[in-house]
Design a protein that fits this description.
Shape: globular
Largest sheet: 5 strands, antiparallel
Order of helices and strands: HEHHEEEE
Oligomer: single chain
Structural class: alpha+beta
Distance between the termini: 71 Å
Radius of gyration: 19 Å
Strand content: 25-35%
Length: 111
């Protein structure tokens, strides 16, 4: 019985690194500042400025996390039409990662 339990635990530990690699790991504010200062990511302000030109609205929520060794911003925007839009942005380039295209509820910022 103990041997079976030991073998199950060992098998689970062998699969642990892959499971951990696929988790979103959110960072703290001071860690994000360090990433911006070292040039690994763009600041949220810079990233939002580029997205705002394509999807005008108000920022509701934002998170920075690392997923499969890539830095991502996950943002939620309330569009000028009142709809909530969830976007995932590449934090190193500011480009849209998900969805592949901006939703129809997004409208360009009128300058």
């Amino acid at each position: 019985m103990k041997l079976a339990l030991y073998l199950c635990l060992m098998a689970a530990m062998l699969h642990l690194p892959a499971a951990v690699a696929n988790q979103k790991i959110e960072v703290q504010h001071y860690e994000a500042q360090t990433l911006v200062k070292t040039g690994q990511i763009l600041s949220l302000d810079v990233t939002l400025s580029s997205i705002q030109a394509m999807c005008n609205g108000k920022l509701i929520d934002a998170h920075l996390y690392q997923y499969q060794s890539q830095w991502r911003y996950e943002v939620q925007i309330r569009t000028s039409k009142g709809q909530l839009v969830d976007l995932v942005l590449d934090a190193s380039t500011g480009q849209l990662a998900k969805p592949a295209q901006l939703p129809a509820s997004c409208s360009a910022d009128k300058v």
